[in-house]
Amino acid sequence: MNKIIVLDRDGVINQDSDAYIKHPNEWIPESGSVEAIAKLKKAGWTVAIATNQSGVRRGYYSRQTLHAMHQKFVGLLAEHGVAVDWISYSPYVSEDNSPCRKPGTGMLQAIQNRFDVSLAGCPMIGDSIADIQVAQAMNMQPLLVKTGKGERTMAKNASELSDVPVYDNLLTAVESLL
User: What is the pTM of this model?
Assistant: First the structure.
């Protein structure tokens, strides 16, 4: 089995906001998330990020600003001597009906193509029902974290989550995988 994992960004790796994360200064890592990714990388995992970023389409921030947020993230990982292998994002809103936007499978298909692997059976960690649904659509192993929108997701979608393991945060999820 390939050791590849897909992570959502907002609410999993960094703190989320209903007002959107619009600037690198607002991009604040969740406690333990950078260390969790470092542990994955040091254990030989390929780490890919798949993140809906409708704020681009809504005009809340530019692609350049999104790139600057990701550069901040990459810099924090570099302090631990690691890097993510892939960052995929969808700038679209739900009304665009883009196959790239989770729960559409486009970003995950791109990850499969990039690494020439099947994601079936591989873990995906998210905080929203869209993350869980896309993982299930790709026959992945969905994991939910309570950070970000995780608690809200659990309250609103309990019946859909009966077989989905739930963790306090990315670090506890990663420690259970390792």
Answer: 0.97
